[in-house]
Amino acid sequence: MGTMNINTSVLVVSITLILLVCASTANEVCKIKEQKLTCQYDIPNKIPPGLTEVCVENHKDIDLTRNSFSDPSWKSILTLEIYQNKEKTNSIFVHDTAFIELDSLNVLGIHTHGFSMGAIRGSHILRGLENITKLDFSGCVNLDSDFVRSSLMQDGKFTKLRTLNLNEVNTNFGSKFIKFSQQFTNMIINKRIENLNFRKTMIAFQPFNQKTYSQLLHLDLSEISYSLLSKPDDVLFPLQRFLKNLKSLNISRIFPLFWRGENLRFSNIHCTDCTEVHRLLALNLFYIENIYANDILSDIEIPVEVINSTFNLTCRMNLRVLEFRGNNVRRIQGTTIHWPDPNFLRYLDLTDNKLRFLSPNFSRGLSNLKTVLLGENQLSEMSSPELIDLIANCVSLEKLVLDRNGFSYLAESIFLHNKLLTYLSLKGNLLRQVTFATKHLKHLQYLDLANNLIHILDEQSMNRLNVLMRFQTNFCIKLETNPLECSCKSASFVEWMNKHLVYKLDHGAALNCTLEGNVVNINDKTVAKTKFMCVKTLVYASISFTAVVVIAISTVLFITVSRFLKRRRTTDQVETFLRNYRGNQVKEKFVCFLSYSNTDSDVAIEHIYKNLNETFKEITGLESDTVCIDERHFRAGAEIVAEIMRCVSDSSVIAFVVSRSFCQSNWCCLEIKEAYEQHKPIVLIFCEEVDENEMSAHLKQMFQRYTRAKLVKQGEDVNVQPGGWEGLCESIILLASRQYAENKTQ
Questions:
Q1: Domains and their CATH numbers in the chain
Q2: Global pTM?
C-alpha cells in the first residue's frame, strides 16, 4: 500500500512538472540556428548558453522593463531584433532603464507600428547601452524621433554608436516630420554617427548653422517625403559643410522641389568653369564617392534633354559609383563633359532612361569605368560609328549591359577596344546572329543572348562563340527564350548546342526548340531527329529528280527571259529618265553634284568636271550644265551650309572626289553627311590612294557600299577606271534613273 502511494506521488509530481514546463513555453516558440535564437510572440526570460543573437517575431503586446532582461544569460547577447506581427495590431512600450542590463548589446532593432518610448521626455530609455553600435527603429511609424534624439543625448555617451536607422519613422503623424534641425545635427555630430538612414520617412529640413563637420559617411534619403522650411540655399549650403565627409548618398525616388515644374531641356549651355555648377557644389557631390539617384525625375512630363552643351567637371571629384536609373533622360547629344583627371568613376548605371542618344563625348575621359549598365533604353537609334565611339572610350570596361535597346545588328568592331570584358549582356534585343568580333575578348566569361530573335546561328556565329569557349573553360552563354528552330537546316546548330552544353539554364532544365511544330528539349534524341530530317529530305529529292530536272530547265528559261526583261526595263528606265530630264520633268536640276576639297580643285575642275560635263552633254543632248559644282553654282553671299543642302537636293547623284585632304575637310564631311541623310546615290572618285583609317565613319561605309572609280594618268590626259569617262557617266545616269523610278513609286 505504501509503495502504491509513493508511485502515485511520483506520478503526480512528474505530471505537474510537465504542465509547468508546457505552461512556461506556451508563449515562447523558439528555434535555435547556429548562434541565433528565434522566438515567436514573446521575449524569452532565459537564453540557452552559447548564443549571441535573439530575434522575436510576431510579438504580442510587450512592456519592456528592467526585469525583462534581468537574467544573467542575457549578458552574452550582442544582437536583439523585435519584429511586428502581420496584423500590425500589437504594441511595445519601453520603460525607464529597460535595457540597463544589456551592457554587452551591439545591435538593437525594434520594428513595429505600436512602439513608444517612455512616458515623458528625459526618461532614461537607452541607459546602459554603452556598447551599442547600431540602433534600428525602421518601421516604427508612430515613434516620435525627438524621444530618440533626447535619449541619445542624455542617457549615455554611446561612444561606439555608428549606425542609426530611422526608416519609415513618423509616417503615421500626418504633418509631423522628423526635424532635420540644429538639435538633430548636434546629436549626429556629438555621437559621431557614420550611417544615417531615413528611407520612406517624412523630414522637415530647417536652417541650421554648424561649424563642425559631421562624421557621416553614408546617408540614405531614398523615397522620403520632405519639406524645406526656408529657401533651398539656406538648407543646401549648411548641408555642404555638415556632410563634408560623406562617402555615400542615396536620394532615389525623391523629386527636388526646386526643379518641379521646370522644363529640363538644356541646350547650348557651356560651363567652362567647374565652380559654375552651383547645385552640385551645394550638395557636395564633388566629394561623395557613391551617389544613388534613381527615379528622381521619373514623374516629369517632358523628357530631360541635354543638347549641344559643355560641362566642366574637372574640379576635384571622388565619384566612384553613380546610379541614375529611371530618370526619363531622353537625349545627351552633341554634349561634351570634361571629367577630372585622375577620374575614379568605376560604376555607371543609366538603366531605364529611354535614352535614344548618348554622346560619345560623354564617355571620353571615363577610361577607368569597370561597369556600365545601359539596359532598358533605345540606343539602337544611334548610328554604328557613334555607338562604337561611345563604348570604345571605356577601355577598362569589365561588365557591360545593353539589354532591351532594340538592337537588330551590332557592328563587328563594336567591342574592339573592350578587351577586359568579362560580362556582356545583350538580352531582350532583336539580334539574329553574333555579328561582332570575339577574338580579342579573351577574358569574357558570360554572354547573355536570351530573349532575342535567334532561330539558327550560322557557321560564322558559332565559330565566334567557339573562340570564346577556347579562351575560358567556364564560359557561359545564355540562349533561353529565343525562337530556336530544330530542323534539317539547323542540324549543325542543334548538334553544336548539345555538344557544348551551352543550353543549360541556371536551374538545370534543358533549352527548348521547335521541331515540326512541337516544343522539345534539346538533347541527343533531338539531334538525331534533325539529322534524320536531312536524310528524309534527300530521299524525297531522289524520288523527285525528274521533276527537279524539268523545273531546272524551266528555271533556266525563266532566268534567261527575266534577265532579258530586266535589261530591257533598265534600258527603258534610263531612257525615261533622260527623256523627262530633257523635258525638265525631273525634280533635280543636275544629274550630278561634284564635291571635292579645295586642295584638289585643279584636278576636279580641269579634268573631272570638264570631262563629266562634256560626256553628259553628249549623252543627254543638252547644252546646259548637268554637273553642279560650287565654283559655278553656289550663290554669292549665301550661307555655305544652305548652299550645300540646296545643291545636294538639286542633284540626282553625288560624286565625291576623295583624297587625303578631302578626308580632313570639315566641309566635305558635311557634304557627305547631307548626301547620306538625303538618301542620294553616291559615287566615289579617288584621285589618290587613301588609307581606310584616314576616312570618317560615314566615308568608310560608303567605301564598302557604293560605286568607286579611280583617276589614272595616260600621258598628258587624265582618265578614269574602270570604263573611262563614258562608262562613269553611264553608271551615274543609271543610278539617277533608279532613284527617279523609286521616287515616282513612293
A1: 24-243 (3.80.10.10), 247-354 (no CATH), 584-745 (3.40.50.10140)
A2: 0.67
